[in-house]
Each structure stands twice: as structure tokens, then as C-alpha cells.
Amino acid sequence: MAKVYPQEPTSTSLTSKRETYTLWMKSLVFHSNGCTVYDSNGDIVYRVDNYDRKGTREVNLMDLRGKILCTIKKRLLAFGCWEGLRYCSSSSNCKSLEEEQEQPWFQVKRCHNMIKGKVACQIKVGSQKYCIVRINGSKTAAFRIENNDGQIVAEAKQKHSASGVVLSNDVLALDLAAGTDHSLIMALVTVYGLICGIM
To answer: What would the mean pLDDT of 150-175 be, rounded to a whole number?
Structure first.
């Protein structure tokens, strides 16, 4: 099992090379829902612990030390809509502790099958637009995240071991394209997990 508190973490939010993470759609906390994300070295990079129940109205994306990176809230009066709020880091322009709060980051709107087909949801991050597309023919929660130009920025499929053994439905390999914001992708994966009722 990976170390929960390894050496000092490096900033893995944005890299110039393609990366592969392992998504385990289980929380490390006993009797809670969520997911745990491991890097290619087997170290925990991100985690989501939902202490309430599946499909709750608010969950937090955290780093391995439990620092909240993003809060995802389901909007009360808008059916199938979520918003992501990013926490201001200590190195950014927060003027006081009161300002070190949530800042609007992204919005997600769930698409209905009959209207959009394979598209599960549409995402707006400032002026950029993305969508999460379901991958057919899979019994897992396989999906890909595409930008407005149709380029794949992340893709999750059922993980295979090095010897070719197919792992459980709740273990996915997440391939991230170079230059993508890993925290954003993980926040979007969390929303997709909420949409599918996995978390």
C-alpha cells in the first residue's frame, strides 16, 4: 500500500509531460465514500473523502496531506448543476486569512442522455469549455474529457495490471495529456463520480 505521508510533496498540478494516475473509487477512510488517486510511483496524490452519503451536495478534493484544493457544491435550485470553488493558496495574492477562502473556478451542467447522447456533462472554466464523454462498451465508469476542439485532455479506462490482468471495476487508469491542470481534471473526475453515483 502507498504511503499516506511520503516525503515532501512536489507540485504536480501542471506538468509538461503526459502522466498516468490510478483512480481507486474508494476512500481510505473507513465507512466513507470517495476516491483515492495514486501517481505512477504508487504515492497518493489526491483524495476525496465523503463522510456523509453517496451523492452529497458538497465534497472536497484534497491533496495527500488533507489540504483542501477544491470544494464541489451541487447547486440547490439548478437540477444537475455543480460548481467548483478553488481555495486560494498561501503563495497567491490572498491579503488576509478571511480572503483565503473559496474562489469560483468552474461550472458543470449534467446532460440528459436523450439530448446529448454520449456527453455526460458540459463544463465551463472561465472562457474555456470542456465536456465529459462516456465510453461505450464498458461496464466501468470509463470516460474521457475533451476540450472545445474535441482534443482529449484526459481519459479513464479500466486498469490492467502489468501482467495483463483486468482489475476491479472501481480501479481506473487515468491518462492526462501534457500541459493539463491535474487539480482541475481531478475535480471534474469527482463531479463525474457524483453524477454516476459512485461517490
So the answer is: 91
